[in-house]
Amino acid sequence: MVTLHVPIEKLSLSKPQIEEGLRNIGCSIEGGGIEINPNRPDLFSRIGIERALKHYFFRELTDYTIERPKIECYADEVAVRPFIVCAVVRGVRLDDENIRELIELQELLHLTLGRNRRFAAIGLHDLDDVSPPFYYKSAPESRSFTPLGSYREMSIKEILEKNEKGAEFKHLVENDKRLYPLLEDAEGKVLSMPPIINGNVTALKESTKNLFIDVTGITEHVPYTVINLLVCDLLDRFKDAKAEKVRVIGKETGEYPDLTRVKWSINLREAERITGIKMSTEEAIDSLEKMGHIAYGDGNEKLCVEVPCYRSDIMHPYDIFEELAIGYGYGRIKEKLPESWTPGKKRFRTRDILREIFTGMGFIEATTLNLSSEEEQLELMNLKTKETVEILNPVSNLSILRFWLIPSLLSILRANKHNPLPQRVFECDQLYDREHAACLIESTSADFKEIKSISEAIFHALNIEVSYLSESHPSFIKGRCAVIVKDNEKAGIIGELHPSVLRNFQLETPVCALELWGLQE
Amino acid sequence: MIGEREADTLEKLDEEWRDVKEIGEGLVPWLEKQGLIEVKEETHTDYDLTEEGRKYLTEGLPEKRALAYVRAGKIKISEIPEVKIATIWLKRFGARIEKGDILIDDAEKIAAKIRELEAALKDPSKAPEDVIEILMKRKLLVKRETIERFVRITEKGKEALAAKGDKHVVTRLDKEIIKNFEAYDFKEYDISMPVRESYFGRKHPLKKVIDDVREIFVSMGFEESTGSFVESSFWDMDALFVPQQHPARDLQDTFYVKGSMEAEEKEFVERVKEVHENGGGTGSTGWRYRWSYEEAKRALLRTHTTVCSIRYMYNNREKDSFKAFTIGRIFRRENPDPTHLPEFTQIDGIMSEEGASLAMLIGVLKKFYREMGFDNIRVKPSYFPYTEPSLEVEVLHNGKYLELGGAGVFRAEVTYPLGIKNPVLAWGLGVERLAMLLYGLESIKELYMSDIEWIRSTCLR
Lengths: 521, 461
Known about the structure:
The complex is a heterodimer of chains A (521) and B (461). With 521 residues, chain A is α+β, with helices and mostly antiparallel strands. Chain A folds into four domains: 2-58, no CATH class; 66-256, 3-Layer(bba) Sandwich (Phenylalanyl-tRNA Synthetase, Chain B, domain 3), CATH 3.50.40.10; 262-328, Phenylalanyl-tRNA Synthetase, Chain B, domain 1, CATH 3.30.56.10; 349-517, Bira Bifunctional Protein, Domain 2 (BirA Bifunctional Protein, domain 2, 2-Layer Sandwich), CATH 3.30.930. Chain A is 28% helix and 30% strand. Chain A contains 14 helices and 28 strands. In chain A, helix 7 (268-275) crosses helix 9 and helix 8 packs across helix 9 (317-328). In chain B, helix 4 crosses helix 5 (83-92), helix 10 packs across helix 17 and helix 12 packs antiparallel against helix 16 (412-418). Chain B has helices at residues 4-11, 28-33, 51-59, 62-71, 83-92, 107-122, 129-137, 155-163, 175-179, 205-219, 233-236, 266-278, 293-297, 306-315, 358-371, 412-418, 431-439, 445-448, 452-457, and strands at 18-19, 37-49, 96-98, 101-103, 141-153, 168-170, 184-186, 223-224, 230-232, 256-260, 298-301, 322-331, 343-352, 377-381, 387-397, 400-410, 424-430. In chain B, 37% of the residues lie in helices and 23% in strands. By secondary structure, chain B is an alpha+beta fold. Chain B has 19 helices and 17 strands. Chain B folds into three domains: 4-47 and 146-186, Arc Repressor Mutant, subunit A; 51-139, no CATH class; 206-457, BirA Bifunctional Protein, domain 2. Chains A and B meet through helix 7, helix 9, helix 10, strand 19 and strand 21 of A and helix 10, strand 8, strand 10, strand 12 and helix 15 of B.
């Protein structure tokens, strides 16, 4: 979810209308912001929200026009960041509020579609401060310019090391040849050093009339989407503004942005199959117009849908089916129930039986985490090593998946020292990829005999034959521990926990323990 | 019905007040509570001499002896026995001390005061209260209160006595009594009496919720499925059309584990790759990037039980219809706080049949959530990378609509590589959030580091 900070009263609609409209298109008002699903970057500004609401309530559809290029940008092959697309928007009027909103939009796009600037980084420039044509090229680290917000020239090397943005984003451009992306004008003035920082020379100000926009990235698709979103936002924001393509001349030459709608053809039968909504062609067209699309039928079952250029989330006819359903209104959909018959079936029969046995014997069921620490699973239990799943990027000390339950249950006893004794706790659950069950008894009389009696009761109830073999295990008192053997394999362990283990868990009363594994699901 | 012992006791009583001691104290509280007897109490106050008091009774008070010394002209204070106490009291009675000498103006007045005190020591019962108070303050006397209790029978008691037949009244049954129960009457109990608390083994409230959800699924014809905590990125992400640059796959959000996992299903892998890159014949544009098998092989802790659903779909791809669910632990790289843990439990349900659609999904969800106890359910559009259309379920709880799970129709990009023709409906929700709502908990830690008393005493629902 993306949260946009737009005061509701700044939108040109009534509050109930805004709330209804936003909910119906899948946004919600939470506290001071509007929550937007990340697949709708076109809603990441006040302008975008207003546009969507105008579509929804008034079918006010917009088409964007863009003029032929007057400005060129020569693009070298910049290895670390090969794609650039540019645009010009003339006739803007930037006040503080507009600059703030544009920067918020820019940041949200950087974070979402741009994946923190990797896939798209945006530069907004005052066009009148520089002289076209522009050059996108690789520059050595000795090249210097004044970065945005600074009063002096710095070398690229210095920017990467000392500038805040340089340090934050240098991982995106690091390369062995030490050549870095740079966008400069005909006189060598630096517009930006994508994706790190703009030059100070083109900084936006209230007097800025004409904007030059560059979007760079590592694939072409995302920059195209991002520049469309920006240009459409600016054209809606400043009614008198005019957009103009820029010809990028490089390995491939292209004139962008392309603000024409994207044509899709959908089958209404197929739409009905997926949504379950029976809709006439007229209803379908109306539903799509509410979502900002232009639609017209071919007289048969096909519908031609023209999708706004900024809706890059429309990838497949299913996406248009969803638009249809949203336009129609989720709340109006007539529910259906399944018609197929399938047998219901539970798994984990043994787990369920064990839980019944344990609760029948007066044990309290615990729920504990699989994420655990080596300290709890090994050290506190007097164990040295054990092969287990290690996490490469743990949070705090939770660096492994536990391989047994007894330490988790001991932690529960430790956390419950304030409660009266005796305590009987158990847990039966999946560990990694197999079933485990364990129980502990903490009481002044807890001993091997008591836990063996419980083990015998369990295996009798399960009708499983097992034998007990004396075991020397560092967690248990020597001579008071046994492994449970089933079909010549170890299937569990029982015993009295060693006083050192009890002390490690700050317990002062004897504890006997049982853990079973290798049981059939 | 009163018992033998009670009857014996009552028989000793009549309308006269009698000392409790005559009948024995044991049954008195019960008989009184039943209204069979009346009890009154009388309090008597006595004074006992302390050891010091006894001493002075025989030796005389220290001030008396001091006064005698003074009168005899022996006025060197230091020679007076128990000089401190003696001088304190002589001073109180009007003597003066000057330069170590005791000066007495009115010896008779002081002597009278002392006589009064000594008389009170001899017989406190007749002494005035202020004198007694002085002696108590001087710790020569202590007060002793005795309560005497008297009982007499009430009308109800007489009736109870009359109602008791000749039969033997018993409390506990035994083999003999059961055999010949006609010969006995049974003592009636006070059913309002407090009793000892009973404990029993308990399922954990969170697991109880899970059990209930499993029952609901099974009752709706769903089959339970499961899977390992460790999965490959391929099954957890790629097979669900989550692009490889998606933030959910970042090290910040997902736990990766050492090693890599090959996907055996080579043909399926190829189709997933195509779908990511260019839509692979689904009519989709795909994500338009170069898909990497290396990235897909990375092993991780599963981030949702939807991975079990996609594996179930793969294994059941030949079937025209299926319904399946998984409830299990999942892992997200979150720092622990009151509402988040890096590990929690997710419910995931899928179903497919010829007529499966968004409308059917809403129908199934409403049934499902109603079974879970929510009567007011509504849906709103939402977004998940692997479903389209997608929706969010909102339930009315304590007068407020709360988001409680996501759902959708699996994208063609997910089902097409599997070869599944019918739409597949899917939904998921977190069990902890549900349990916290149902049990009114503030912190998810209450579920995972539970107080045993809480588990013991939580009401089942």
